[in-house]
Structures are given as structure tokens and as C-alpha cells.
Design a protein that fits this description.
single chain, about 325 residues, alpha/beta, four-stranded antiparallel beta sheet, 10 helices, about 30% helix, about 25% strand, binds iron/sulfur cluster
């Protein structure tokens, strides 16, 4: 692994919400992403985890410039891509690919796999004269028989479709892939196969990936580092082993306690999160987790904790760890 390929600084994405005031201005803002900073190293899988609605998918889409961030900066491969124009964005699309949650909806049902893949090669002017060979190589790489190529999407299972979508994203030899909940629509046994495939591709191709999931157990085995998001902010970030062995933030601890453990001796106490989740259009001034945190102190309701490094590479936003 070497230097950073992606650097995100103080990124925000606010959506207008609520009624307009007398001047026609939107009176409220939904703060989906609120001041997030992190980086991803070349050859690294960075897992981004949090409950649904925490802003992780919005963050991923901002990073890929599918939606415009409200403020902050995004650097990719040494360049500031925050405000690139349409022409530069087209070039960027080849370097940055995305895998969606539902593989069926991301493929054209009327086209065979060959037609879908040929279209990508044609648009990006790749593998001229050896298109069939290239398509065959990729299908083999993701564990599908070469004769899959003349079939339509409805002839495949969900797991096979996700393999096809992964192969399609690799056609352009991207530098970076954003995978948005790529296994959550699949059966548990198939999830494991796709995660193994992603792990294999990382080893063989040196893939760099932002892997978004709502479940900590999904990212555990493939991520190098993990960031945990809560209501638009990263509340804990660390190397995967450090995060799982020395969990600090009360929210991460709750997510961790929900992971099923097969060994009954290792079973810890399940943390049930009680209390209401604040609305992202009416956030509290203090810690956003205060209403659900069993360790909440007076200070937590007044002052928002910032993300601080408490041991090398381990960051947490919680007043319990303030020096
Ligand atoms: Fe809990 Fe306070 Fe830490 Fe927030 S800052 S997670 S309320 S202890």
C-alpha cells in the first residue's frame, strides 16, 4: 500500500427541506453529510458503516461527483475534483466506478452481457480488436463461465448478477471503486461468496475501494480500515483489527454487539439502543448520539465532540476520550 488516492476534507451535503419562508427561501436544511474528512490509500478497502439514513451513501455519491457537495473539498489522484466540469467528469468516470446495491437495476434487461460490455468498451475506446477476449477474461476473473456472455440479466441469480456488475466495473481498469451496499440485497450464503470475490480481486488487482455497508460484520473481513458514521458525521475511524479489538465509541460498541458470534463463550452483552434518533433537519447542539447513549454526561448535551486521534490511526468523536 502506498499514498492516498482519495482525500476528502470537511465535506458537507445539505438538502433543502421543510416549507419555504415568506421570501421563498427554504427554511430548513437536511444535513445528510456534515463536515466529514477521511482519506483512502492506494490498494486499500475502506469500509464505511452506519445505520440507514446516516449519510454514508450520500457521502459516497458526493465523492464520485454523482451529486454535488455543498462545501468541502475532494482530492482524487492528486487533483482537486470538487468543481470539475462535464468534460473532466467524463474522464473521471473511467477512473472511478460504482457498484450499486441492486445489480439487476444497474443492468439493461434488454441487452445481453456481451452487448452491455461492448458498449462500455466502445464508449471508452478500450481493447479494440480484442473485445471478446477481454470480456471473457473478466467473466472468468469473477467466476462466471465464458458462455454467460450471450445471456440476458434475467437468466442469472442475484449473486451472478453482482459478479457481472463487478466485472463490468473492472472493464475500464478503474483506479477506484465505490461499492454501495453491494451485498445487502443478496442471501447470506451468496454475500460471503461476493465478499470473498472482492477480497480476491483486491489481492490480485490491488483494488482501491470505498465499501459502504450498514453492517459491521460485512466489512470486517475485507476492509483495511473502517469509518463509522452517525447522523452525517464519522464518529470512529481505525484500522480494522484495532476497531474490532479496541472499540471506543458507544455507538460503535452497540453496532459491534449486534454482530452474531458463533462461539457462545465469546458472546458479549447485546447493547439495545434506546431513545429517539434526532432529526437530521433539527440536530442537537451537542453530541448527536446523546439521546441514545448510556454514558451521556451533561457536557455531551452542550458541546459537540470532534474527531480526535486517541492512539496512532485510531480516531474517535466522544467526550469520554478527551484528554
Ligand atoms: Fe455518549 Fe457523550 Fe460520547 Fe456522545 S460524547 S457518545 S453522548 S459519551
Amino acid at each position: 500500500m502506498s499514498g492516498d488516492i482519495l482525500k476528502v476534507e470537511e465535506l458537507t451535503k445539505y438538502f433543502p427541506a421543510g416549507k419555504r419562508n415568506l421570501l421563498g427561501k427554504q427554511s430548513q436544511l437536511l444535513k445528510a453529510v456534515d463536515g466529514v474528512s477521511f482519506s483512502i490509500r492506494k490498494g486499500e478497502i475502506f469500509g464505511l458503516v452506519g445505520e440507514s439514513g446516516c449519510g454514508k451513501s450520500t457521502l459516497g455519491r458526493c465523492v464520485l461527483r454523482i451529486i454535488e457537495p455543498t462545501s468541502g473539498r475532494i482530492h482524487f489522484d492528486g487533483e482537486d475534483i470538487t468543481n470539475v466540469d462535464a468534460r473532466q467528469l467524463k474522464q473521471l468516470r473511467r477512473k472511478m466506478q460504482m457498484i450499486f446495491q441492486n445489480p439487476y437495476s444497474s443492468l439493461n434487461p434488454r441487452l445481453t452481457i456481451r452487448q452491455t460490455f461492448m458498449e462500455v468498451l466502445r464508449v471508452h475506446r478500450l481493447a479494440a480488436g480484442r473485445e471478446s477476449e477481454r470480456i471473457g477474461e473478466l467473466l472468468e476473473l469473477v467466476g462466471l463461465p465464458k458462455d454467460s456472455v450471450d445471456r440476458h440479466p434475467h437468466e442469472f441469480s442475484g449473486g451472478q448478477l453482482q459478479r457481472i456488475v463487478i466485472a463490468r466495473s473492472l472493464l475500464v481498469e478503474p483506479m477506484f471503486i465505490m461499492a454501495d451496499e453491494p451485498v445487502s440485497a443478496l442471501d447470506v450464503s451468496v454475500q460471503a461468496q461476493i465478499l470473498n470475490l472482492i477480497g480476491k480481486l483486491k489481492e490480485e488487482l490491488g483494488l482501491t475501494m470505498l465499501f459502504v455497508a450498514h453492517d459491521l460484520s460485512v466489512v470486517e473481513h475485507i476492509s483495511d480500515r473502517v469509518g463509522v458514521m452517525y447522523l452525517g458525521q464519522i464518529v470512529e475511524l481505525a484500522d480494522v483489527d484495532e476497531l474490532y479489538q479496541h472499540t471506543l465509541h458507544p455507538y460503535t460498541k452497540a453496532l459491534m454487539s449486534a454482530i452474531p458470534v458463533p462461539d457462545p463463550k465469546r458472546k458479549g452483552e447485546k447493547v439495545i439502543l434506546e431513545g429517539d434518533i434526532p432529526s437530521p433537519i433539527d440536530l442537537p447542539q451537542g453530541c448527536r448520539f446523546a439521546s441514545r447513549c448510556s454514558e451521556c454526561m451533561d457536557r455531551c448535551r452542550m458541546e459537540m465532540p470532534s474527531l480526535k486521534e486517541v492512539s496512532p490511526g485510531h480516531y474517535v468523536a466522544c467526550h469520554l476520550y478527551d484528554q
